DNA sequence: GTAACGATGAATTTCTGG
DNA sequence: CCAGAAATTCATCGTTAC
């Protein structure tokens, strides 16, 4: 049985341009691994997984531990670790059966009822077991240096998971936490508003002591970056072992079909223990550059990404000039990178006119292709053959696109043909037609392309679960093996996330049904409806753009627990010392991004979101620390966390401060001082009437008081007259959230206004986070605002005093757009408000390119994606990321990562 | 536009065995 | 008295039929 490893380059192709989604797959010479015999324990071979243009080295089917060739590349240390984990993690996992709840019977009348629910002890509830040894496979996937790097990088993360310990340690370790300076009176930007600002910033600069181990950590990183890869490990191993490894890897790569010279170059450049994907990609790049220097922009992008990944001495802003100043690499490497940078990115479409970028010293055009058609044909043929496509297939492709300049089109077509060949025709005929699209070039030839679900799961969605787990998940979720739709695959991934560990084991007890099947048809309908209305392509919902590889789980390497939300104080409140965090160099620095959503998602959903946003730990805040209402939210961002200030003067911090007129009627048994979270619906009149009826008695009994209080809390009722509870008004909500009163007045129908406010940011909280941007952008900021809503982020930036040079606002609701536009005028903004795009799904790569060219880049990408499927208030479809609206998070992720990719590759 | 519609997970409190 | 387990309390950017 043969196992074929393929290196895939998956790239999103702008969906507005193509009627169908295109996944570009670059297949290198097959890497053949021969299995001795199947074993019980299977091995996933997965390399590193990068962003949308990243690489995935994977195995379609399990590779046994006894794999002869693979074992050559595995050190004995790996095998020991694997065996140890198998031995320790082999317990059977039982599906936890959720305990049922029992409601008290009498719930019809208000009197003498209780809303409390009692959990019935469930005898079937078995204790959770440790994750099974599936993750051990991932230990193997990382070569020794990779593993060490991972562990090194994990240390600060794991350390950060225990905030109490760290803060205690910081407090105990030093008294050097100092308030260095405090100054008041920083007003708003005078040029941005005709009226003097009411807010001042209280500048409190805190400095964190650099702890010894952190100093050492940074030092080590830098050193590593400067050392040749081989030399990194020479100290850890003796010369003979190193030589043996070198030879082993050389043989291994030779068997993959690569030339010896290229292999030697790759091993010298990356070291013998580098990840296969890195080596293979390096060789491919060498090949590609050798065969033809102008294959296409996308291939050169890989070179850049790899180079940047490897260059740990890179500065945060990643400007190339800075890189060169810092980089100690050889002159030859520098020339190569310069050439690559010159040829990368921004491939103009024929119909597009490329505006001149300000302050540019380089052209965005890629190098011109060979003029001679025969030369093009030969070039494409060589390229496709080098990617490992069958010669017959290559001929077919070349017949149609032999002289095509765009290499991606060729690859799309070749992939579609390959997929078609691979799939069973009989099965294809028996399957219902699918919405999954093939490249438009192929549709005339392939009417119903059969796409293997597992392939799609692994290739597009970058699933790293074992084939066994996937097989079982397919059965459990009743997912078709061919042509599964995207939402079905998302559901499958969710199921795998939840039960993948169990599925890897021989556990018969897992009786989960498909938890996501309910809304599948809804989503499909919506997509097609929107497609018919021209709002989006049917295949707009592309897979996530960033899915870091799953972390290896071993005995000593356990996934950090979900971050605690107790208190929801993020990395620190005003006046508190700030908890430090460690962002990788790939993530830190401009352009900044800022994502917000509800804190209390279904279990595991924040972890998924985190994985799609550079694996940055969410920061949970409750706005009750900044205003008179609760608003527990999670934020994932790469903003600095030190030096935050809040806007002054302080807003009303209690209900009583906000509404002093209610104090006269406030019952003594109602202890509330803060509103609960502002929802999107108002309390119904019958609730208020019922409360009134029960308050006819002068002093209601305690149980009635409790019930009334519960309703007051749920619906944010206030006492506007004796025994008269009323819902909080829109104006009061505006003030609670940090908007000016009447911010939303006049744009919405009554219910819509309430909903728009309920969906908004808490300006005070967001402003606190954004305040670190003020010294960074004294001349103003360019913002890409997704899911703008009523403009909470923009208002926050304005109130901090950051000038809004450009705001590209993407908001689908017309009334919201009108509200933002009105605020823009009323607040005397002098910058540009661009509301051209209404739907985030219409922002493809080309649109983003043109926006970047128009405005010269973005400094901040901000957005809070819809939360309906996350919210605890949703009784119907609280389905998490696979929900109809919450899946829009992936659009934020896609756009944020794409913009960051573009901006960071832009010449300064 | 109105009104009726629970489940979920975290935080908190209480119970229990040593 | 204490630690861990179990029970209870509490809050939740909402959906849908009418």
UniProtKB/TrEMBL annotation:
One matching Pfam family: DNA_methylase
Classification via InterPro entries: C5-Methyltransferase, C5_DNA_meth_AS, C5_MeTfrase, SAM-dependent_MTases_sf, SAM_MeTfrase_DRM
PROSITE patterns: C5_MTASE_1 (PS00094), SAM_MT_C5 (PS51679), SAM_MT_DRM (PS51680)
Main subcellular location: nucleus
Domain (SAM-dependent MTase DRM-type) ranges: 579-906
Active-site residues per Swiss-Prot or TrEMBL entry: 867
Location(s) in or outside the cell: Nucleus
Feature: compositional bias, Polar residues: 98-114, 177-196, 350-361
UniProt keyword Aminoacyl-tRNA synthetase, yes or no: no
Keywords, sorted A to Z: DNA-binding, Methyltransferase, Nucleus, Repeat, S-adenosyl-L-methionine, Transferase
Region annotation Disordered: where it falls in the sequence: 97-200, 349-373, 553-574
Entry EC number(s): 2.1.1.37
Keyword Repeat found: yes
Bias (Basic and acidic residues) ranges: 151-167, 553-565
SUPFAM superfamilies the UniProt entry points to: S-adenosyl-L-methionine-dependent methyltransferases
Family stated for the protein in its record: Belongs to the class I-like SAM-binding methyltransferase superfamily. C5-methyltransferase family.
Cross-referenced PANTHER family: DNA (CYTOSINE-5)-METHYLTRANSFERASE DRM2, DNA CYTOSINE-5- -METHYLTRANSFERASE 3-RELATED
Protein name per its UniProtKB record: DNA (cytosine-5-)-methyltransferase
Lineage: Eukaryota, Viridiplantae, Streptophyta, Embryophyta, Bryophyta
């Amino acid at each position: 049985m043969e196992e074929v490893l393929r290196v895939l380059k998956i790239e999103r192709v702008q969906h507005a341009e193509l009627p169908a989604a295109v996944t570009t797959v670059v297949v290198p010479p097959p890497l053949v691994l021969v299995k001795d015999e199947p074993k019980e324990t299977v091995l996933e071979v997965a390399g590193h997984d990068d962003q949308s243009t990243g690489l995935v080295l994977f195995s379609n089917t399990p590779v046994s531990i006894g794999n002869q060739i693979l074992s050559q590349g595995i050190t004995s240390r790996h095998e020991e670790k694997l065996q140890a984990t198998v031995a320790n993690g082999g317990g059977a996992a039982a599906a936890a059966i959720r305990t049922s709840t029992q409601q008290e019977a009498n719930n019809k009348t208000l009197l003498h009822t209780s809303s409390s629910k009692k959990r019935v002890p469930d005898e079937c509830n078995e204790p959770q077991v440790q994750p099974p040894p599936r993750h051990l496979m991932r230990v193997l996937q990382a070569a020794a240096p990779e593993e060490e790097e991972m562990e090194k990088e994990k240390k600060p993360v794991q350390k950060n998971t225990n905030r109490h310990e760290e803060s205690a340690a910081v407090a105990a370790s030093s008294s050097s936490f100092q308030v260095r300076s405090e100054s008041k009176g920083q007003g708003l930007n005078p040029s941005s508003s005709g009226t003097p600002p009411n807010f001042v910033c209280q500048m409190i600069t805190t400095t964190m002591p650099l702890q010894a181990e952190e100093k050492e950590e940074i030092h080590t990183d830098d050193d590593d970056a400067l050392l040749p890869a081989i030399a990194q490990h020479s100290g850890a191993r003796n010369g003979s072992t190193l030589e043996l490894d070198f030879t082993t890897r050389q043989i291994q790569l030779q068997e993959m079909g690569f030339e010896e010279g290229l292999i030697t170059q790759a091993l010298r450049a990356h070291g013998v223990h580098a990840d296969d994907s890195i080596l293979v990609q390096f060789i491919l790049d060498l090949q590609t550059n050798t065969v033809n220097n102008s294959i296409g922009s996308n291939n050169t992008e890989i070179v850049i990404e790899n180079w940047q990944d490897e260059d740990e001495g890179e500065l945060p802003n990643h400007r190339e000039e800075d890189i060169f100043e810092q980089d100690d690499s050889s002159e030859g490497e520098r020339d190569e990178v310069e050439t690559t940078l010159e040829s990368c990115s921004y491939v103009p479409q024929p119909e597009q006119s490329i505006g001149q970028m300000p302050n540019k010293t380089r052209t965005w055009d890629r190098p011109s292709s060979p003029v001679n058609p025969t030369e093009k044909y030969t070039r494409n043929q060589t390229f496709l053959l080098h990617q490992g496509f069958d010669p017959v297939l290559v001929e077919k492709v070349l017949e149609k696109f032999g002289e095509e300049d765009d290499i991606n089109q060729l690859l799309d077509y070749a992939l579609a043909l390959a997929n078609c060949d691979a799939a069973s025709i009989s099965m294809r005929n028996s399957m219902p037609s699918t919405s999954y699209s093939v490249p438009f070039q192929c549709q005339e030839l392939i009417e119903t392309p059969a796409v293997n679900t597992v392939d799609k799961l692994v290739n597009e969605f970058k699933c790293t679960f074992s084939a066994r787990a996937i097989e079982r998940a397919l059965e459990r979720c009743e997912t078709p093996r061919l042509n599964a739709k995207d939402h079905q695959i998302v559901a499958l991934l969710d199921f795998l996330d939840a039960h993948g560990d169990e599925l890897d084991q021989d556990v018969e007890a897992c009786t989960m049904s498909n938890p996501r099947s309910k809304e599948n048809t809804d989503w499909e309908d919506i997509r097609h409806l929107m497609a018919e209305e021209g709002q989006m392509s049917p295949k707009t919902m592309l897979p996530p753009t960033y899915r870091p590889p799953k972390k290896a789980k071993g005995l000593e390497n356990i996934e950090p627990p979900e971050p605690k939300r107790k208190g929801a104080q993020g990395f620190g409140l005003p006046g508190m010392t700030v908890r430090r965090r460690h962002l990788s160099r790939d993530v830190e620095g401009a352009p900044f991004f800022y994502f917000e959503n509800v804190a209390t998602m279904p279990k595991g959903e924040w972890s998924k979101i985190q994985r799609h946003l550079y694996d940055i730990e969410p920061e949970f805040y409750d706005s009750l620390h900044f205003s008179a209402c609760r608003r527990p939210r999670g934020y994932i961002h790469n903003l600095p966390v030190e030096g935050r200030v809040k806007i002054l003067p302080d807003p009303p911090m209690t209900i009583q401060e906000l509404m002093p007129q209610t104090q006269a009627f406030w019952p003594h048994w109602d202890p509330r001082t803060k509103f609960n979270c502002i929802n999107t619906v108002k309390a119904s009149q019958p609730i208020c009437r019922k409360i009134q009826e029960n308050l006819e008695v002068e002093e209601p009994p305690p149980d009635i008081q409790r019930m009334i209080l519960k309703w007051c809390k749920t619906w944010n009722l206030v006492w506007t007259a004796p025994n008269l509870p009323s819902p909080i008004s829109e104006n009061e909500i505006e003030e609670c959230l940090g908007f000016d009163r009447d911010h939303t007045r006049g744009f919405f129908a009554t219910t819509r206004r309430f909903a728009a406010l309920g969906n908004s940011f808490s300006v005070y909280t967001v402003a606190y986070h954004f305040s670190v941007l003020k010294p960074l952008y004294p001349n103003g900021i360019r913002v890409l605002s997704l899911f703008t809503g009523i403009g909470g982020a923009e208002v926050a930036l304005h109130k901090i005093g950051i000038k809004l040079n450009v705001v590209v606002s993407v908001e689908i609701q017309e009334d919201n757009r009108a509200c933002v536009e009105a605020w823009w005028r009323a607040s005397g903004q002098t910058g540009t408000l661009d509301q051209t795009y209404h739907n985030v799904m219409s922002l493809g790569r080309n649109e983003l390119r043109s926006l970047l060219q128009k405005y010269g880049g973005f400094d901040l990408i901000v957005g809070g994606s819809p939360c309906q499927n996350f919210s605890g208030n949703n009784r119907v479809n609280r389905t998490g990321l696979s929900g109809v609206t919450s899946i829009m998070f992936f659009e934020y992720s896609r756009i944020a990562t794409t913009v960051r990719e573009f901006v960071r590759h832009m010449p300064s």
